[in-house]
Amino acid sequence: MSTNINLTKVEIFHTDRGNEFKNKVIDEVLKVFEIKRSLSKKGYPYDTAVAEAGYKIIKTEFVFNRIFKNLEELKRELKNYVLWYNYRRILSALNYMAPIEYRLAKVTE
């Protein structure tokens, strides 16, 4: 597996305490690139609740039942999805406004 991200610029790697993050490869990468590990508090799932909720939305609304031809298509479609979500998708939790619209309304109050 490879990444185009410059790992020397990563300072912190935050995860929950899931078993998928207890492996030698991750430990070695963190050590080599001097990346600090940050773990959620034991028995306290709220540290990553916002991120987990975001992942769930992306998985169910964007990824589910889709196949991307290549990484470039995935990047392009994800960018379009994020723009749609932020500027167009209305949310009942935000008084039936899109996230950007809601934020702007709060700033001007």
Q: Which second-level CATH architecture of the largest domain applies?
A: 2-Layer Sandwich
Note the overall shape. extended
Q: Specify Rg, calculated over alpha carbons.
A: 18 Å
Largest sheet: 2 strands, parallel
Distance between the termini: 47 Å
Helix and strand content put the structural class at: mainly alpha
Number of domains: 2
Tally of contiguous helical segments: 4
Q: What is the CATH domain class of the largest domain?
A: Alpha Beta
Helix content: 40-55%
In terms of DSSP E residues, the strand content is: 5-15%
Q: Report the count of strand segments.
A: 2
Query: In the CATH scheme, what's the topology name of the largest domain?
Result: Nucleotidyltransferase, domain 5
Please mark out the parts with pLDDT under 50 across 5 or more consecutive residues, or reply none.
Answer: none
* Elements, N to C (H/E): EHEHHH
Provide the spatial order of strands within the biggest beta sheet. 1-2
Q: What name goes with the CATH superfamily of the largest domain? A: Ribonuclease H-like superfamily/Ribonuclease H
Organism: Clostridium tetani (strain Massachusetts / E88)
Protein name: Putative transposase
InterPro entries: Integrase_cat-core (IPR001584), RNaseH-like_sf (IPR012337), RNaseH_sf (IPR036397), Transposase_IS3/IS150/IS904 (IPR050900)
GO molecular function: nucleic acid binding
